[in-house]
Amino acid sequence: MQILLIGNPNAGKSSLFEALTGTCVKIANHAGVTVEQQKACCCLSSGESIEFVDLPGLYSLNAYSDEEKVTLNFLNEGRLLFVLDATHLKRNLFLLTELLDAGHRPLVALTQVDLARKLGIQIDLELLQSRLGLKVISVSAKTGEGLKELKLAFGTVSAEARRAKVEEGKKPHQRYEHIDAILEGVLTHAPLKRWNPDAVLLHPVGGVFALMGIFGALFLILFGIGKPLADLLETGFEHVGWLLLPVLTGYPLLASLVVDGVIAGVGTLLAFVPLIALLFFLLGLLEESGYLARATFLLDRLLSKAGLSGRAFVPLLSGFACAIPAILSTRVIRSKQSRMIAMLVIPFLSCSARLPLYALLIAAFFPAWQGALVMLGLYSLGVFAAFIGGYCLKRFWFKAQTDELILEMPRYRMPRLRPIYKIVLERTGAFLKQAGTLILSMSILMWALFHFPQGAVLEQSYAGQLGHWLEPAIAPLGFDWKIGLGLLASFSAREVMVSTLGVIYGLDSNWALAYSPLVALSLLVFFALAMQCMSTLAIMRQETKTWKWPLFQLGAMTGIAWISSCVIYQAGSALGY
Fold it and tell me: Which of 57, 185, 331, 371 has CB 3.0 to 4.6 Å from 9, enough for a Cys bridge?
């Protein structure tokens, strides 16, 4: 027997699902979309096995997002367990009455009853059952109240599957009038006086400053803890390579492949893991506490001008740390078109991997005060490019689509660590499993370009030949073949640009004398705007299930970077710099 948990977002479905099934959960993606489903089995005292499916939440049977459509497609696959939030009865009953009109007779689990009592909400359960004509069982996932009774009641749920189709003729206001009639005498409120944090956190001015402070602290923690962990992993893989070198002494080409290709590729991949896991954990804390929805609300109006909703705020902000977890976190965006816009513009934002080259060139070519302005300008340039890119995509590509924000403000609460831990484990594991093979393959490809033909010097390798081949195209930017080679190498990981320049110039401390400040500025602008990250392309391929959008992103960003750098170098040269 299959039981489908259905209800509004934040109604307590996932908590009830965990309480009913324990930890034996299977995670999978629904066909054709990136929406995840959770399934788990448990046995009743009678010995009958039940499979529970935790469906994505929805507010109405009129579905718009991928998540809502997935839920509707599942309604005919099993028996329904409707999760009814005791703290938001009127809103939850909108969906339940739609299901009743469509012919479904679900079992109802009344959740959040302990919180409702604290809020002074009193519910006449027997009268509610009578009005709905359904079995309603009060449950608490936290205390276990009602779980045994709920399992015993599963056998009484109608097994007949009916197609979910809203009956015509009942308008929303008529439905709410019907709900008011149901709740008359069922629901009473005891007045409570307490301070509401939203007076500050949703204030048009104070809320923005609070948001900046909260996310500033989040990224301080992210860099303060995640970056040292990433560096530690990177160092650990370097040591593994050094330990393997003596073993492979007689096989220099194999040693180079293993150390410089495979281990370096795996190290690059795993170096992202601490940042990804920590970011998901911190965002999970904010979401569980109820604050993330408020941050979304505050920034919705500004982001809507670039074809995005407030839900894109966290992914965009995450892009300053690393584009990979940022693109993964765009799954919170309900509209497919708005999510695509967000994924396409996130790489414009200056991630931490660009910082080594920024620091190297700025320190070498610009005095302190000019360097500070250049650094600020590079970050501002990325933000401006992302905003303009989103605006153009909305205006000329996705102009027929909108992403209206319909958002519930959840109640503040202490974050629960168990669901956060599960989210971190699942999403980090998905990143490693789905992106690992592609990233490793591309790392080996880059190694081959730099090491073949066998025995050739760097300039005569395939990569060196590509650098010379690229030189006519990058000469208008002030770049020579050596910088072109560095750009090729940095495609495997942006940080490699610095070490590649060191290898090309033999770690000569006077390498900067080969270039001018104008060339350095042109290179900084190119690096700030170009798509120089194969890992990001791999994640884009994973999330979009096609190479169309990653290749479009690569071409568009490279073209924008080329034009911008060309304008800067040619204008500077004309002015005598």
Answer: 57
Q: Are 296 and 405 in contact (CB under 8 A)?
A: yes
The sign of the torsion formed by the CA atoms of 490, 495, 496, 502 equals positive
- pLDDT value for 400: 47
- Contact call for residues 371 and 362 (beta carbons, < 8 A): yes
Vertex 144 angle, CA 141 and 149, to 5°? 105
**354/533 Cα distance (integer angstroms):** 10
What's residue 472's pLDDT?
Answer: 92
pLDDT < 70 regions, the chain: 23-37, 43-47, 63-67, 155-170, 191-194, 219, 222-223, 227, 265, 268-269, 272, 309-310, 355-356, 368, 399-408, 430-431, 433-439, 442-443, 493, 495-496, 498-513
Residues 153 and 229 in one domain: no
CA atoms within 13 A on the CB side of 134: 27
Contact 85, 45 (CB under 8 A): no
Residue 340 lies in a domain: yes
Buried b (16+ CB within 10 A) or exposed e, 108-140: bbbbbbebbeebebebeeeebbebbebbbbbbb
Q: Are residues 98 and 210 in the same domain?
A: no
Residue 137 shares a structural domain with residue 221: no
Q: pTM (2 decimals)?
A: 0.60
Here the tokens at position 411 are 């109640």
Which pLDDT score is estimated for 521?
Answer: 92
Which residues partner with 137 through β-bridges? 109
Structural domain count of the chain: 2
**Distance, CA of 164 to CA of 171 (rounded, Å):** 17
Instruction: Identify the pLDDT of residue 550.
Output: 93
Q: Does residue 306 share a domain with residue 157? A: no
User: What's residue 24's pLDDT?
Assistant: 47
Note whether 140 and 109 are within 8 A (CB): no
Separation between Cα atoms, residue 115 and residue 241, nearest integer Å: 55
Q: What is the β-pairing status of strands 107-111 and 79-85? A: parallel
Question: Do 175 and 245 have their domain in common?
Answer: no
Select from 408, 438, 468 the last residue of a domain. 438
Asked whether residue 467 is assigned to any structural domain, the reply reads no
Are 300 and 405 spatial neighbours (Cβ–Cβ below 8 Å)?
A: yes
Is 407 in the same domain as 348? yes
Residues 176 and 69 in one domain: yes
Interaxial angle between packed helices 368-392 and 336-345, expressed in degrees from 0 to 180 and rounded to the nearest 10: 150
Q: Are 84 and 7 in contact (CB under 8 A)?
A: yes
CATH number, domain with residue 73: 3.40.50.300
Residues 9, 117, single domain; the answer is yes
